Structures are given as C-alpha cells and as structure tokens.
Amino acid sequence: MYNKLEIIEKCILLNPRYIQTFREKLKITQSKLAKESGISQSHLSMLEKGKREATELIACAITYGLLKCYSQRNPEDPIYGLLDTLSLLKFEDALIELIYDIKKNEDLRYIRNINDNSIIILNRNSILTEIKKRLKFVDIIDINIMRGRLEIFGKYLEDKDFSIVLDCSDIRRIEKKFYERNRLRVIIQSFPKGEVPPIYGVNDNCLIIHCW
What we know:
The chain starts with a helix and ends with a strand. The longest helix has 28 residues, at 78-105. A four-stranded antiparallel β-sheet has the order 1-2-7-6. It has a three-stranded antiparallel β-sheet with strand order 3-4-5. Strand 1 (111-114) and strand 2 (117-123) form a beta hairpin. The protein has helices at residues 2-14, 18-26, 30-37, 41-48, 56-73, 78-105, 124-134, 168-182; strands at 111-114, 117-123, 138-146, 149-156, 161-166, 186-191, 206-211. With 212 residues, the protein is of the alpha+beta class.
C-alpha cells in the first residue's frame, strides 16, 4: 500500500493542482480535506490554484488526508479510489501531450485539411497506440468512445483491473489544461461509429480535435 501512496504523493508534490481534481472526483470538500490533512484551508486553496508549491511533508499529509476522507465512505480498498483518479489525471496528461505533439510536428497520419482548417482525427486504435507510448503508470487495454464520454479500461502494474470515465466536465478540464500549458485553444469532440458528422469523412469511433 505504501508504494501506491508514494506514487500519489510524488504526483501531488510535482503538481499540486492535481489536488482539486482528486477532491472533486472523490467528492471531498476543501474544508474536510484541510482538516484531515492538518493544514489550513487557505494553504490548501493556494496549493490548488498553483500559488504555492508543495513540500514533501505537505504532499504526504494531503495524500493521507485524501485516503482518510475517502475511506470513511469506501472502507474496502480505498487506495484504489485514489489510484483510479490518478490514472484519470495521467491519461489526461498523456492525451494533452499527444495532441500537442501532433500539432507541433504536423503529423499527417492524424491531420486532415477540412475547409482550409487542420483537424486532428484520432480513432480508437490510434489513441490506444499513442497513449501507451506516453503512459507508463498503467497499462491501457481498451477505450470505449461515446458522445461526450470516454471509458478507459486497463490494468495496474500489479495486474489489478481498473476502469475510469472521462465525461464532459473532464474533457473541458483537458481543454483548459491544454491552453494553460501550450497557449493554444483546443476543442475535443468524441463520436461513436456511425455518429461522426459526414464532413469529417470518418466511419469509426474517434476523437475530433480542433486546435488553433
């Protein structure tokens, strides 16, 4: 268990803004987490906004605070609730990196010119192939693409199955994070096979990505 917690600690240490997503996904209030972590709510708020860096001690305290809060409602294997959320965040980061690489390198495998606009189109197999190159924390096995929603299935390194869901709010968060990191606007749309607008000329489960 301690090795798993150390993984979460390290991620919080490197990127304190992850804390807010952990809270939202695990349905933990800021005041509750602050109390269980032994820090002030104002300190926690500054960490979440990126206005203050985390120390190893603070990252450890917040990790155990998250675990304590979540275990009160989910006493069986609460550590996997945290790991599922971390997997979601890591998947988001990998997708952001993928989109930026395609845009930067003008990768014509995934770019189509439609009405004089460069559109990135990623089908299910492309996403699986490219994300696996960028995501070492877990093994992604399958992706189910629906309208405004992605379901990701995989295994943790110790061979335990997991599934995570990206809904519309998660996709909007990815778009916001992409702009904050790269100063490029992006709109991400997801379509199952048979529902892709004809203008894109695709008959497959895919992500349609506008980036400018």
